[in-house]
């Protein structure tokens, strides 16, 4: 029923959207007739089934005119100059009406004709679009063909098929004849060189149009692409509750997502357990690719049952620790409820809460409640603490090793002659307490809480005060000794060298001694040796003596040249621990400056030692050494007169050449250096003479050449005339200054 008028191919690719299409009306050029037939209009365009008409005019003198046509023909008529061709319902696609004229050319009968150009057109019955050999979504980057079918159109050569993407006309096209094609989408033109992406999915418009009508069709296009995750790194899920993870994998077609945990494929249940916590990898694939995403699932759960917290019964005075321990996610917080008391301390360590009760008493007796909570839940537990009253009766016997006597402080550090004190308390009813000591003793006292030992001027090096308590109707006693450290800083600290006076000699061994006088206790003494600011050695002393002692420390040194002038010192330091004075007392000796003697070492300047005949030279023998060495020059064993280390040879001759020895000697040693003095001829005057001669010769030659040149050029030009003129002056060389006369001659040489 419908004939295919045109098929347009749309080639979709990463590179372009292309199209093949189109026809245009054409008009055959009218033949050049000599006859007078003229058509008005010369061509008609009409819709199929419409009406059309045209006039044919000729000039006078014809033998008849008429219309020849499949419809609307007009038979030959004479005597008129205009005839009309008319059709009311034009349906002949091939109609070609012709107007003809008969006339005489001289004696010849002739006929000529003119054809009317009729363009009959019809708009398409339908325009439809489809994709060629493909159904379903397209893949990003691949090439596809879309086909647009335009049914029952005429004339096809004037048809233009336009492709649209959305509202956007698609412009690039291929075909023969080259069609004008534009794709539109979303009212903007599509750059056909841009590859299709998933964003290009959508409605595409195709419009088929000829000059008098249009029809369009639409196409839905879907672009496929590889999966992509849109997920967080970390998720929190509450145990045993339903959950959703806002984690999606997008792609077309919809990707298949698998979950992996520790290399195994897993499926997450509807309710998670704490064992489901951990690191997961999600892998999504579809036909176009694979993507993965790693995420952490934290499973939150409320605090677990409190463990290790039970009812307790303790003795008064003992220490108790209550422990409240649970676990949950997130880590829970602990809080205690109990009868507050100053001897109770709350300590949080490692996700556990401890309640430390020191010297528990009846006041601490009661209910202790520990409550544990996190944002998921809360749990608590109550226990009862019972404090047993201790039997404090003085008549109960002491248990083995028990001594209820306590000293505060338990040890003292006191400077010799200073005051000291300590308290003694008893944690049990007693029958009397007191201090036994060489100084500051306290007689036994009953019905007291404590007794104090005090000395204003402690000078007994061996003092060892003891506090005693009597119990069990006087038959049992126990003692606690106070540790007393009596110290004294040294009277003096001095440094000296052992068995040696005066300067030291390089390389030998010496001993330095540091004497610390009258120090106590010597076991806490450290003697530090310093060379300048740097610590060289430390000595400690092993002795239990409590009384002051004089001790010494020795340092062995092997001085070198660099030690000359070094200062040694020693420091006596008493380290008495945290109870002792801070910083630890220290006494420093006067510094000992050592003098080091060392043997000479020679350097001769200059080196080497050539002597030029007739010249003088100074040889300097530099000798270092301590004490400063005596320097002597010798030649062949004979002393040569020299001014200390300086040897002067003046007006050198053969006799001065030879071997010279410089010897340096001091108390620490000697050194000598032999110098070979060579005599060299002095070529300088000869060279200087030759140079002077060459200069003189060159100068003479130059002056000679210059004078010739001068005569030939500068003077010659204007002097030959002026020469005669100035001949009166008799002075040729004067021409420059004497310019008034010759200059005029020069500018007017013929005058
Ligand atoms: C032909 O001529 C007639 C008479 O002059 C005029 O009425 C008519 O409109 C013309 N038709 C065309 C198609 O020119
Ligand atoms: C025109 O001609 C065709 C075929 O001859 C016919 O089917 C149609 O009805 C006609 N139309 C009119 C308006 O006369
Ligand atoms: C008339 O006839 C002559 C000779 O036969 C020829 O050359 C000329 O072209 C003709 N004229 C027309 C108008 O046909
Ligand atoms: C396509 O056709 C519809 C209805 O015939 C019309 O509303 C629309 O404007 C046309 N689109 C184009 C791009 O021509
Ligand atoms: C998931 O939800 C959380 C909280 O509502 C939000 O911060 C996060 O951006 C979302 N993640 C994704 C991938 O949508
Ligand atoms: C995804 O990958 C798995 C295993 O590699 C395969 O079995 C499955 O068919 C793939 N799915 C798609 C949609 O390609
Ligand atoms: C996840 O993707 C990365 C890069 O895209 C790849 O190196 C890795 O092997 C993938 N992991 C899995 C388990 O597929
Ligand atoms: C001994 O106890 C008394 C009274 O409590 C106190 O004032 C004193 O400072 C204590 N002395 C020592 C050394 O602790
Ligand atoms: C401390 O006692 C010593 C010896 O008994 C005495 O020499 C010294 O003067 C006394 N110091 C004071 C301050 O009483
Ligand atoms: C000590 O006292 C207890 C009880 O008061 C008594 O039984 C015991 O005989 C007494 N011991 C002595 C030696 O008095
Ligand atoms: C002092 O010396 C004693 C005995 O050698 C020792 O026990 C104590 O730790 C020393 N104190 C310091 C602070 O070194
Ligand atoms: C129709 O097509 C013909 C042939 O290609 C051409 O000459 C003519 O100009 C066209 N007509 C229109 C209106 O484009």
UniProtKB/TrEMBL annotation:
Cross-referenced InterPro entries: ICAM_VCAM (IPR047012), ICAM_VCAM_N (IPR003987), Ig-like_dom (IPR007110), Ig-like_dom_sf (IPR036179), Ig-like_fold (IPR013783), Ig_I-set (IPR013098), Ig_sub (IPR003599), Ig_sub2 (IPR003598)
Topological category with respect to the lipid bilayer: Single-pass type I membrane protein
GO MF: integrin binding
PROSITE patterns per the UniProt record, alphabetical: IG_LIKE
Organism in which the protein naturally occurs: Megalops atlanticus
Region (Disordered): 729-751
A GO cellular-component term linked to this record: membrane
GO biological process, one term: cell-cell adhesion
Protein name: Ig-like domain-containing protein
Residue spans of biased composition, Polar residues class: 729-738
Subcellular location: Membrane
């Amino acid at each position: 029923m419908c004939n295919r008028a045109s098929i347009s191919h749309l080639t979709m690719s990463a590179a372009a959207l292309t199209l093949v299409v189109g026809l245009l009306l054409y008009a055959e050029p009218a033949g050049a007739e000599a006859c007078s037939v003229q058509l008005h209009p010369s061509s008609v365009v009409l819709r199929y089934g419409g009406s059309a008409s045209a006039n044919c005019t000729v000039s006078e003198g014809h033998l008849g005119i008429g219309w020849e046509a499949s419809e609307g023909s007009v038979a030959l008529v004479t005597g008129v100059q205009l005839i009309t061709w008319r059709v009311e319902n034009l349906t002949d696609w091939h109609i070609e009406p012709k107007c003809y004229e008969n006339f005489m050319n001289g004696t010849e009968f002739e006929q000529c004709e003119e054809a009317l150009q009729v363009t009959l057109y019809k708009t398409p019955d339908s325009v439809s679009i489809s994709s060629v050999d493909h159904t379903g979504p397209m893949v990003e980057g691949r090439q596809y063909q879309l086909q647009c079918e335009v049914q029952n159109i005429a004339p096809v050569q004037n048809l233009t098929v336009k492709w649209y993407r959305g509202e956007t006309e698609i412009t690039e096209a291929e075909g023969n004849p080259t069609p004008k094609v534009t794709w539109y989408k979303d009212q903007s033109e599509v750059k056909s060189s841009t590859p299709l992406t998933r964003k290009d999915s959508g409605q595409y418009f195709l419009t088929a149009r000829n000059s008098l009508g249009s029809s369009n069709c639409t196409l839905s296009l879907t672009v496929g692409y590889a999966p992509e995750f849109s997920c967080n790194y970390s998720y929190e899920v509450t145990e045993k509750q339903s959950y959703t993870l806002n984690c999606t994998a997008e792609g077309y077609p919809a990707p298949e997502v698998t979950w992996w945990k520790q290399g195994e494929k897993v499926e997450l249940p509807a309710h998670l357990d704490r064992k489901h916590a951990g690191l997961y990898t999600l892998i999504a694939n579809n036909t176009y690719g694979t993507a993965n995403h790693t995420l952490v699932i934290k499973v939150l759960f409320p605090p677990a049952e409190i463990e290790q917290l039970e009812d307790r019964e303790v003795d008064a005075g003992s220490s108790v620790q209550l422990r409240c321990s649970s676990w949950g996610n997130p880590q829970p917080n602990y809080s205690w409820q109990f009868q507050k008391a100053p001897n109770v301390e709350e300590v949080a360590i490692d996700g556990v809460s401890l309640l430390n009760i020191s010297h528990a008493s009846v006041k601490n007796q009661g209910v202790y409640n520990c409550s544990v909570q996190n944002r998921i839940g809360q749990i608590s537990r109550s226990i009862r603490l019972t404090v047993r009253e201790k039997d404090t009766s003085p008549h109960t016997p002491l248990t083995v090793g028990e001594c209820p006597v306590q000293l505060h402080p338990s040890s003292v550090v006191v400077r010799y002659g200073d005051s000291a004190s300590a308290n003694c308390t008893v944690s049990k009813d007693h029958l009397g307490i007191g201090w036994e000591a060489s100084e500051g003793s306290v007689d036994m006292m009953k019905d007291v809480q404590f007794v104090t030992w005090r000395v204003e001027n402690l000078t007994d090096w061996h003092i060892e005060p003891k506090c005693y308590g009597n119990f069990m109707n006087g038959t049992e006693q126990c003692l606690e000794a106070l540790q007393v450290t009596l110290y004294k800083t040294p009277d003096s600290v001095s440094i000296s060298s052992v068995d040696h006076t005066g300067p030291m000699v390089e390389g030998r061994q010496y001993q330095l001694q540091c004497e610390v006088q009258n120090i106590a206790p010597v076991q806490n003494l450290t003697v530090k040796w310093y060379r300048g600011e740097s610590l060289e050695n430390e000595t400690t002393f092993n002795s239990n003596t409590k009384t002051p002692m004089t001790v010494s420390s020795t340092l062995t040194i092997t001085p070198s040249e660099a030690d000359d002038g070094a200062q040694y010192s020693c420091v006596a330091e008493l380290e008495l621990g945290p109870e002792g004075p801070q910083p630890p007392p220290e006494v420093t000796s006067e510094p000992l400056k050592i003098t080091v003697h060392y043997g000479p070492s020679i350097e001769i300047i200059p080196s080497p030692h050539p002597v030029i005949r007739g010249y003088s030279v100074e040889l300097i023998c530099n000798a270092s050494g301590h004490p400063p060495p005596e320097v002597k020059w010798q030649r062949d064993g004979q002393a040569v007169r020299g001014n200390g280390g300086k040897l002067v040879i003046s007006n050198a001759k053969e006799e001065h050449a030879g071997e010279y020895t410089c010897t340096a000697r001091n108390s620490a040693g000697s050194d000598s250096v032999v110098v070979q003095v060579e005599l060299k001829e002095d070529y300088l005057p000869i060279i200087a003479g030759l140079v002077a001669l060459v200069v003189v010769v060159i100068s003479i030659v130059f002056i000679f050449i210059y004078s010739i040149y001068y005569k030939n050029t500068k003077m010659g030009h204007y002097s030959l005339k002026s020469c005669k003129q100035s001949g009166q002056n008799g002075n040729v060389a004067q021409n420059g200054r004497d310019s008034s006369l010759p200059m005029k001659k020069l500018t007017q040489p013929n005058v």
